[in-house]
Amino acid sequence: MRKGTCRFRRRRAYHGMLNINLSGRRALVAGVADDGGFGFAIAKSLAEAGAAVCVATWPPALNIFRNLLERGKMDASRAMSDGSQLQFERVYPLDAAFDVLGDAPDDLQKSKRYKDVGDFSIDGLTQRLTADFGETPLDIVVHSLANGPEVKKALIDTTRAGYLEAVSVSAYSLVSMMRRLAPLMRPKGSFLSLSYMASERVIPGYGGGMSSAKAALESDTRTLAYEAGRRYGIRVNTISAGPFASRAASAIGIIDAMVSYCAANAPLAEALTASEVGNVAAFLSSPLATGITGATIYVDKGYHAMGMAVDRGMPGTP
Ligand SMILES: NC(=O)c1ccc[n+]([C@@H]2O[C@H](COP(=O)([O-])OP(=O)(O)OC[C@H]3O[C@@H](n4cnc5c(N)ncnc54)[C@H](O)[C@@H]3O)[C@@H](O)[C@H]2O)c1
């Protein structure tokens, strides 16, 4: 009788608990240099789900980021729900513009922010990961980085160099990371990147070839999902996030207007938070999402579904 009661209680205790459980998994989040962007929020959500998290940081931002961490300036945002602090297993240098160190110009390699960090290329990151953790150290890779030096210029005024730089850093880097990191992943791994709907609709002010880079990123997500799925059994998805005032987005120059426009016109009339993106990233990286690959998932309060700006005077507008 007591045994039966016990069994009943145990069953009840677990009923309805469909958790994102990433314990025993290791994630690499590339593109974290402060606590104000999607990369940090994704790292935190992955850690909340139990994953060990390494991050990769652009060398010009690396020292500042390490100082912020060491001086406790990010302690509030690192606070985890169990009372502990978000820890990064490693903070690696990464300049995603370079596949191997030899591709970086000499003067850049010798410059103040790069000269002491070691091999900051994608290949260098791969070597560090295997040196630190063995041949198959990863389950989850998140590409949360972008850069378009001419983002403030209209596409029509963008130089060839600016355009190619935007596509190189923001899109090709995913291909290069996939080629080098996919063989390091354990079975059922997940790759994820961050896109923006300027890939498919015109967002005036999001220039410099960044819209082209996001279109490439989304298309490559589909092709890489097929190729890496067949070759390695890993999944590849991208989150098309709504506008959010991160450090990178602030460089666009119109981010506050983009945020308030979306909040005013989206089905959910409120600003997007980074943790909403982080939580979807954790889900997509988890065993709960083993059926999803090659997808562009909108996390934008539904803004992508709209075909018309909201005019409160119109019939049908609440
Ligand atoms: N903030 C938005 O409104 C928004 C909307 C949709 C998609 N996204 C995408 O989300 C991703 C993360 O951006 P975020 O807005 O959270 O800003 P963020 O500033 O937190 O992240 C961008 C990161 O890219 C890094 N970076 C730049 N050039 C690099 C390089 N050559 N090598 C390695 N790292 C480099 C920066 O140091 C920074 O850490 C980007 O792909 C961005 O396009 C942002």
Word description of this protein:
40% of the residues lie in helices and 13% in strands. With 318 residues, it is α/β, with parallel strands linked by helices. It has a 7-stranded parallel beta sheet with strand order 3-2-1-4-5-6-7, sandwiched between helices. Helix 2 links the parallel strand 1 (26-30) and strand 2 (52-57). The longest helix is centred in the C-terminal third of the chain and has 23 residues, at 210-232. It is globular. Residues 31-33, 37-39, 58, 61, 94-97, 144-147, 169, 194-196, 241, 243-244, 246-249 line the site of nicotinamide-adenine-dinucleotide. Residues 31-33, 37-39, 58, 61, 94-97, 144-147, 169, 194-196, 241, 243-244, 246-249 line the site of nicotinamide-adenine-dinucleotide (NAD).
Attribute tags:
single chain, 318 residues, alpha/beta, 7-stranded parallel β-sheet, 11 helices, globular, disordered N terminus, binds nicotinamide-adenine-dinucleotide
Distance between the termini: 58 Å
* Oligomeric status: single chain
Shape type:
globular
Low-confidence stretches: 1-11
Beta-strand proportion: 5-15%
List SSEs in N-to-C order. HEHEHHEHHEHEHEHHHE
Radius of gyration from CA coordinates: 21 Å
- Average pLDDT for all residues: 94
Structural class: alpha/beta
Molecules bound to protein: nicotinamide-adenine-dinucleotide
Write out the strand line-up for the largest beta sheet, numbering strands in chain order.
3-2-1-4-5-6-7
Per DSSP, the total helix count is 11
Q: Percent helix among the residues? A: 40-55%
User: How many β strands by DSSP?
Assistant: 7
> What composes the largest sheet?
7 strands, parallel
